[in-house]
Specification:
The chain is α/β, with parallel strands linked by helices. It contains eight helices and 13 strands. It has two domains: about 1-160 and about 195-225, NAD(P)-binding Rossmann-like Domain (Rossmann fold, 3-Layer(aba) Sandwich), CATH 3.40.50.720; about 165-195 and about 230-270 and about 280-295, UDP-galactose 4-epimerase, domain 1. It is about 40% helix and about 20% strand.
Length: about 300
């Protein structure tokens, strides 16, 4: 298939792009002018979006893609006054322009990426922060498009993620650096439940979903929301013990060294539906072991 991907320089989208290429798909990546594309694979065709919707629309008309994987997003735990406009531009305006171009080019399917932060306190909708609110806003806007056009618009919601070559300031990287530098970490009391998924399990879900959408000519899945949940959910304290067991190390943590942040997610959303036919194939223990061994 011809597939347009956004956010391809990010950890998750980059892994999905590699998987798409390995399965013989033709990949087009939409990037911003300031994006560092030096690490993107040569097989990818790039379109630089300057904010001109006509040019974006023309690009879609030229290539006539089969589908879109939309993972680009501005993620902010907390926002400042100066960050309101970039949040809106990235998560609502760009997303809407992308979907407009898709329906105009009669794209068959569009996989959007959401977040568990849209479901604070395990509610149907309660945004943890403004970032989560912008993700919900785009889903609401998208309803107009899939109700008035024949496009399979589907959302996959993600929570915490990890894997090899992950340079983000995520928990396993944080612990790994603390061990390497022999540092003490002041952390929250650690009673929040963690739902964290390995990148290979995540790419499996995306690939399974796009194949379902490829074979569906009736937009059967339009408006569906799926979630990638880990089989193993545990408190942050318990997760640190699993990490230490797998890595044969000890993380020097002062539990309660800092307070929980405002609107801390104590229990991640667990009411989402899995992608039809998908299941977690790699356990948390095995995934951590794989990542640590690749890092040596």
């Amino acid at each position: 298939m011809k597939i347009v991907v956004t956010g391809a320089t990010g950890f998750i989208a980059n892994a999905i792009v590699e998987r798409l290429l390995s399965e013989g798909h033709q990949v087009y990546v939409v990037v911003r002018p300031q994006t560092n594309v030096s690490k993107l694979l040569a097989q990818i065709e790039l379109f630089t979006d300057t904010g001109n919707t006509t040019l974006l629309n023309d690009f879609f008309q030229d290539i006539k893609p089969d589908g879109v994987l939309h993972l680009a997003s501005l993620v902010l735990v907390n926002h400042t006054l100066e960050e309101i406009e970039p949040l809106i531009i990235s998560n609502i305006l760009f997303s809407t322009r992308l979907l407009e171009a898709s329906v105009n080019a009669k794209v068959k399917w569009f996989i959007n990426t959401g977040t568990f932060w849209q479901n604070y306190n395990n509610e149907e909708y309660n945004p943890v922060n403004l970032y989560a609110a912008t993700k919900q806003a785009f889903e609401d806007i998208a309803k107009y498009y899939y109700e008035t056009n024949k496009i399979n618009f589907v959302t996959i919601k993600l929570n915490d993620t990890f894997g090899s070559n992950d340079t983000r300031s995520k928990i396993f990287n944080l612990w790994g650096r603390a061990i390497a530098n022999q540092e003490n970490l002041g952390m929250s009391p650690g009673e929040q439940v963690i739902d964290i998924s390995y990148i290979d399990n995540i790419t499996d879900a995306y690939m399974m979903l796009l194949k379902l959408l490829r074979d569906d000519d009736n937009s059967t899945y339009a408006g569906e929301v799926y979630a990638i949940n880990a089989n193993e959910r545990m408190t942050l304290k318990e997760l640190s013990k699993v990490y230490e067991e797998v890595t044969h190390t000890t993380v020097d943590i002062t539990w309660g060294g800092r307070e929980y942040r405002d609107r801390e997610v104590m229990v991640p959303w667990n009411k989402g539906k899995p992608v039809p036919g998908w299941k977690q194939n790699i356990s948390l223990h095995d995934a951590i072991s794989t990542v640590m061994n690749k890092g040596k």
